[in-house]
Amino acid sequence: MRFMIGYQMLPDDALLDLVLERREAVSEVYFAWPGFASGRGSSGRGDSLLTNELQNKLLSDLQRLSRGGIACNLLLNGHCYGRESLARVFYEKIGGVVDYLRTHIILSSITTSSPVIAKFLKQNFPELERRASVNMEIGSREGMDYLAEYFDGYYLRREWNRNRKKIEEIHAWCRQNRRKLYALANSGCLNECSAHNFHDNLVAHEDEIRAMDNAYDFQGVCREWLARKEKRERFLEVSNFIRPEDVRLYEGYFDAVKLATRVNPDPVKVAKAYLDGTYSGNLLDLLEPDHADLFLPEILENKLLPENFGEHVLNCDHDCPNCSRCRDALAGALVDVEAWNRRHETRR
Questions:
Q1: What burial letters (b/e) apply to 166-199, b meaning 16+ CB within 10 Å?
Q2: pTM higher than 0.90, yes or no?
Q3: Among 72, 153, 83, which Cα is nearest to 112's?
Q4: Which letter does DSSP use for residue 145 in this model?
Q5: Is the pLDDT of residue 317 over 60?
C-alpha cells in the first residue's frame, strides 16, 4: 500500500526527510495553500508578512519534495467558501494559484469538497486529477455517479472503513467506471457524527470567527461525549480508524491511503508507524483528532488489542448493541500511563 502524507510545517526537516527516505511507499504529499479555507488548520487569509513567510517556506519544502520525485496534492477542501463560493474572482484566484504551483512543483492532483471547483478544474486544468474530499462523506455508488462527470477519484466515507461488503461494492463501481478510490486511515472522528458538517463549517470560517468576541469555544461534540466514562467504553465500536498493522487487509481496494498529519502533534511518529506497518504505544496518539487527553491517566496500548482486531471489525456484521467484543478489546488494552512508562524505561 502507498500512502498520502499531509504536510505540516515543523521546526526541523524530520517529516520531509522521512518522506524522501521512504519515497517508494509515498504516493504524494498533500497541502493547503495560504489564503484558502481547508478542512483542517488555519486557512492563512490575509497578506501579512507572516503569511508571506509561511508561503515561502511551504513552497521551498514542496520544491524539495518535488526534486525528490514526490507528487503534490493541493487541498481546496474547505466545507464552505461563503459569498465567494460562486464568485468569478474566487475562481480567478484558484486559477492563478494552480498555474503558479504547476510551474514550481510536481502538482498532480487537487482534492476539493466543491463540485463547482471540480468543474472549474476540469474545464481549465484537465490534466490534474480531481479528487472528492472525505468531507463530502460519499459512501454509495449513486453518490459517486452523480459527480462522475467532474471527479476522477473519491475518498471513501469514513464509516465504511470497517465494512468489507461496502468497500467491495464501491471498489467495483470505481473500477468499472475507471475512477480511483482512496481511504483516510487515521481519523479520530466518531461514526455518524451529527455535528460533523457544523464543525467543518466552523473550520472553514475560522479566521472570521477568531476575529469575533465569541460566547462559546466549540471543540466538537465528540469531546463532550467521550468525556463521560460510560461513553468512552464504546470508543472502538464508534471509531473508523485503520491500525498500521491492518492496512495490509485493504490491499487491492484502494489506490492509496491517506494519513491525517497536518495538525497531529507528532506527524513523524504517525507517518513512521504506518510506513513500518507496526506501532507500540498509545494508539490514540496516531489519530487526528487524537482524544488522548480524555483517556488519561490511561493510554490505549496498540499492541494489547487482539491481533485479529482489524480483520474482525472489517468482516463483522456490526450488530454492536448485541456484541461486546470491541468494548472488551478496549478494556483489555487500556493501561495506566505511569506504569506503562516505568515498564518501558526499565526495558531501555
A1: bbeebbebbeeeebbbbbbbbbbbbbebeebeeb
A2: yes
A3: 153
A4: H
A5: yes
pLDDT of residue 150: 96
Cα separation, 321 vs 241, whole angstroms:
20
- Residue 176, pLDDT > 60, answer yes
Phi, psi angles (nearest 5°) of residue 96? -65, -45
Q: Is pLDDT of 40 > 70? A: no
- Is the sign of the CA dihedral 77, 82, 86, 91 positive or negative? negative
pLDDT in tens, 208-235: 898 999 999 998 899 999 999 999 999 9
Instruction: Return the C-alpha cell found at 18.
Output: 522521512
Q: Please tell me the distance from the alpha carbon of residue 76 to that of residue 79, in angstroms, as a whole number.
A: 9
pLDDT beyond 70 at 332:
yes
**Residue closest to 37 by CA, chosen among 207, 247, 256:** 207
Which of 263, 260, 144, 183 is closest to 1 using CA atoms?
A: 183
- Is the separation of the CB atoms in 264 and 246 below 8 Å? no
If we measure between CA atoms, which residue out of 21, 40, 22, 44 comes closest to residue 30? 40
Question: With b meaning 16 or more CB within 10 Å and e meaning fewer, what string describes 261-272?
Answer: bbebebbbbbbb
Q: Which residue has 504516493 as its cell numbers?
A: 27
pLDDT in tens, 124-148: 999 999 999 999 999 999 999 999 9
Q: Which of 174, 202, 184 is nearest to 80 (CA)?
A: 202
Burial readout 231-243 (b: 16 or more C-beta within 10 A, e: otherwise): ebbbbbbbbbbbb
Look at residue 47 in the predicted model and tell me its pLDDT: 44
Q: Whose CA is closest to 117, among 153, 152, 76?
A: 76
Distances (CA, A) of 15 to 9, 269, 276, 286: 9, 9, 15, 15
Closest CA to 133 of 102, 154, 107: 154
pLDDT interval class at 338 (50, 70, 90): confident
Here the cell at position 231 is 461513553
Measured at the alpha carbon of residue 212, what is the angle toward residues 294 and 133, in degrees to the nearest 5? 60
